[in-house]
Amino acid sequence: MSAHGQRHIGVIGAGAMGLPIAARLHASGARVLVADPFPAALERVRDAGMTGTADPADAAACELVVVMVAAPAQLLSLLEAGPFEQGSAVRTAVVTATVGPLAIREFAERLAERGIDVLDAPVTGGVAGARDGTLTLMGAGGEAAIAHATSALAPVGSVRAVGTRPGDGQSVKLVNNLLSSVHAVAASEALRFARALDLDPMAIHPLLTSGAANSWMVGDRYPRMAQPRDEREFNTATAIFAKDTSLIGDTAQALGTAVPMLELARHVFQQAVQLGWEREDDSCIADLPTSATAAATL
């Protein structure tokens, strides 16, 4: 904290998740610095009343840095061009992005050599959770890192300890995302099937959510999938599921374990991206042509 008791927090990545996370911290009274290489993102940061920079190294003066980048390579690039050099004021780096266990372990090992704690804390709850401060952070790391993040990031959500080793959080998140992606595709398939049977998808929704057919995706995504495409509220970009399903598939292959349902889901999200829908809400998979989804079963 500063001499006046105000937390100084850096957020690297001002995308769909990073920006509302930063805004929650800013609204709580923290002094927030947001780093993002894109001018449009920095403009949104400044419009929200926060300080923005294109150089993540500027966050070296912060006590805690939240990392919400898109890919493992971006995380590892911060080892050389980020705020974590020797002499940095950073005590804890909290990686809230989904980057896989291998990348986070390398990142944590390198920062440990510099005296910086790493909390592996991928999030679940989506954009709405980030905006409302109800995210769940799947925290894996030492007691000091968990305690620091739990206190500093309380405006963002709750830290659920899932392990003591960086990498455990990412592993839990990959399991979480495997189920989420398969359930989302199943919900879209059920919606199309209901329409083919000449049923009103929303008329049967209360029944679906009251029994064994229910899942979080049936409760959350299915109603959006049932809406006209131009009336849907944006929550999570299709590109996120396309990226995460690829990460899960690649990790499973490296481990020698089969994930056939995941591979079907990966194909569906990739089809949506190939149609140019990567920036649309992921409920758009319900609008894929039947031929595109049928190809996933071949």
Write the layout of secondary structure elements.
Elements lengths: L7 E5 L5 H10 L3 E5 L3 H9 L3 E3 L10 E4 L4 H10 L10 E4 L5 H12 L4 E4 L2 E2 L1 H7 L2 E6 L2 H10 L4 E7 L4 H29 L8 H4 L7 H11 L11 H18 L4 H15 L15 H5 L4
Parallel strand pairs: 1-2, 1-4, 2-3, 4-5, 5-6, 8-9
Antiparallel strand pairs: 7-8
Helix pairs in contact: 1-5, 3-4, 7-9, 7-10, 7-11, 10-11
Family: Belongs to the HIBADH-related family.
GO molecular function, one term: oxidoreductase activity
InterPro entries: 6-PGluconate_DH-like_C_sf (IPR008927), 6PGD_dom2 (IPR013328), 6PGDH_NADP-bd (IPR006115), HIBADH-like_NADP-bd (IPR029154), HIBADH-related (IPR015815), NAD(P)-bd_dom_sf (IPR036291)
Explain what the structure shows:
It is a single chain. The chain has 298 residues and is α/β, with parallel strands linked by helices. The chain has twelve helices and nine strands. The chain has helices at 18-27, 39-47, 72-81, 101-112, 126-132, 143-152, 168-196, 205-208, 216-226, 238-255, 260-274, 290-294, and strands at residues 8-12, 31-35, 51-53, 64-67, 92-95, 117-120, 123-124, 135-140, 157-163. The strands form two sheets. A six-stranded parallel beta sheet has the order 3-2-1-4-5-6, sandwiched between helices. A three-stranded mixed beta sheet has the order 7-8-9. Helix 7 crosses helix 9. Keywords: NAD, Oxidoreductase.
